[in-house]
Each structure stands twice: as structure tokens, then as C-alpha cells.
Amino acid sequence: MLPVSDEFRINIINFGRGVRNKLHFHSSEQVLIVTAGTGIVATEEEEKIVAVGDVIRIPAGVKHWHGATEDSEFSHMYVMRKDSQITQVED
């Protein structure tokens, strides 16, 4: 069971092979903790391959996406403020 917090939203996200979310940003920073597989975390400037145990901090307002590589499923836990807003910038 995931811990419950009055201040933070904590969840686990699973991606199938080659699946990613759309380019977006948050109003507060987001922390990703890779729990399974191999994935990609990308900003407008760079793409980084991430694997189990990696911890990634994405600052507030930074446009980014994350998802699985073509040959691996991918899971991560995320932590961010409960009041954080998400803005999708990719259709």
C-alpha cells in the first residue's frame, strides 16, 4: 500500500513497451522513482534513459514527458504536491 500524505500525491504509473505520456509540465516539482523496466525521461533539450532505482527530479514549469523504451515495459512512482496542476502542451 502506498503511504497517504496530506501534502503529497504519490502514485505508481505503468507503461507498456514504447508507450509514453504527452509533453506536459507541472506547477510544482515532480519526483520520479523508477520501479521496473527501462524508460525515457525527456525535456525539450534532452532525453535520458532511466532504469530501476533511478530518482529523477523535474523542476516546476519544465516541459517533459516520460515513458517506456521500445523494448521494455516501464514503471515509476511519482511524488508531487497535492495542489500541483498539470498542463499538457502536446496534442
Overview of the structural elements:
With 91 residues, this protein is mainly beta. It has one domain: Jelly Rolls. The protein is 0% helix and 55% strand. The protein is built from no helices and 8 strands. The strands form 2 sheets. Strands 1, 3, 4, 5, 6 and 7 form a 6-stranded antiparallel sheet that branches. A two-stranded antiparallel ribbon has the order 2-8. Strand 3 and strand 4 (47-51) form a beta hairpin. It starts with 7 loop residues before the first strand and ends with a strand.
Distance N to C terminus: 33 Å
CATH superfamily: Jelly Rolls
Unreliable residue runs: none
- What fraction of residues sit in β-strands? over 45%
Total domain count: 1
CATH architecture: Sandwich
Alpha-carbon Rg, integer: 13 Å
Number of helices: 0
Strand count: 8
Give average pLDDT, whole number. Answer: 95
Quickly name the level 1 CATH class: Mainly Beta
What is the percent of helical residues? Answer: under 10%
